[in-house]
Protein 1
Amino acid sequence: MSLGRNPIAWPIAWAVAAIVLAAVPFVHRDPYHLHILILILIWSFAYTSWSMMGRFGLTSLGHGGFMGVGAYVTALLWNHLGLTPWLGIPIALVCAAILALIVGYPCFRFRITGHYFALVTLALSGIVLQVITATRDWTGGSLGYTPEATKGSQLLAMQSGDKVVWYLGALVVWAFGLVVWTWVDRSMARSAMDAISEDEDAAAAAGVNVTAEKLKITVLSALMTALAGAVYCQYQMFISPDTVSGIGISLQMVFAAVVGGLYVALGPTVGAIITILLAEMLRIGFGTKAVGWDNLIYGALLVAFIIFLPKGILGSILDRLKLRRAPAPTRPAAEPARARSASAASPP
């Protein structure tokens, strides 16, 4: 019996997948491979956060700004005030939410959509990058910033040198992103946002509060992206404007979500696998000679996928599987009868 026709099969399949993924670091302990898996999980969560808006036609090029806020606010509060990341991360999320409201409300209130909305968010990403660079006495500027290593409890400082701990933590964060994505997909918010993306005037006439619905999804996406930045900062113990903020990071999110599959929960994860492995192959194969090549490749592939494979890799695969499972069209039963009657009535 197929998974689609058996309501019990899907929970069992997810449970088995969760057990297998959780067992990975205990079966395969290679530090480098675990490091790559951790990066894939963290960036998958970041890309999923972007897809929360992108799937409804809200093309944001400013999510690098939200990620930078999450990373830098958490690190600054720890270094300068000694505030544990367990409290610093919620404060960083509040800052990201306020920033999303400041940018989103005027855009949605005055119907700034499409390319114009993308340009506004692009400016946001650039502004955050410039602020981080300009305040180098506090943030380290373009040289980067390192959270201070704890001299006390690693749990309180949210720091650990154990790859297994970070893998399991990143796995939980990644799963949380999938749960939120699925919750939105099955909620009334999806119907409202689908209506808005098709025709804002018709959605408003039907009783949908267009501005409020757009703000909800924007703030939720910003919160998740800021959380991804904070988790990345705590894991890497080093951040810089180029690694967690700026236009390059925003474009990377767009590329990964579109290439993997914007309308599929696991699509951003597929995109993360591609981006992380591509970056690693370029780093290992060409070293410093390949700096910036990944963004060039992302841009070229993004254009190609938008033209030839708009539903992404995973979305296209699922569509083909649905077509194969669809029953073959059959001729109506009345048609042969009509044909026989017509042949009988016709002269020899």
Protein 2
Amino acid sequence: MSYQSRKQIILKILEEKGEAEVKELAQQLDTSEITVRRDLGTMAADGLLFRTHGGAMKLSLVNQPVSFVQKSNMNASQKEQICRLAAAEIQEGDVIFMDCGSTVFKLCDFIKHKRIKVITNSLPVVYELMNTEIEVNLVGGEVDKQRQAVHGAVALEHLHRYHADKAFVGVGGISVANGLSAVSEKEAEMTLGMSRQSKTTYLLCDASKLETTKYLQFASISLIQVLVTDETKDTILTPYREVGLRVLN
């Protein structure tokens, strides 16, 4: 059976059921689970479905714009590696902040079994965690439809009422010399707010963002305490350790 034929069958199943697991789709298509995973990855990148841990879901249920779906599935293996490391840092009973970044979103797959509290401005994070054991606190304020996140003055005021053990955030770029940078003031404000209200801030950052500077430089590198990355080169990571960061890779 060709990819195009499998794609149409998968879309039909998702339209009827809303979501399906890889094993179920493989049986329906009479093909291997490896082939199904590859198909789902391709379809997710094309904005045809939402890839979940173990399967897929039709986009209308997720209520996310295609751009977010595509972004969350870019460099999926690197993001999963980063989030496994980050999840291992979270203890039972922790209160954590999670921002609206696509890498931080992937952390959901690895914490659903934990009895913790999550404070977030991300609508996709809320959707992903709402039927788990986790207690979810959604930040109030104005909804950014493109980012599927809550931003603004009211959102910041909400954050300031809470204290967390750990904050898990992402940035547009990080540089030892120039610090943290973002692609918008809204995202920078939320990163600052979550970091200042937590005991420890973890930056989840793939290798492509290291030693890069984006549109807005908003904080020194001292804002974070732990860098979680898929980068392996000591030549790149040593300067971060030398300025006092704990590096997980």
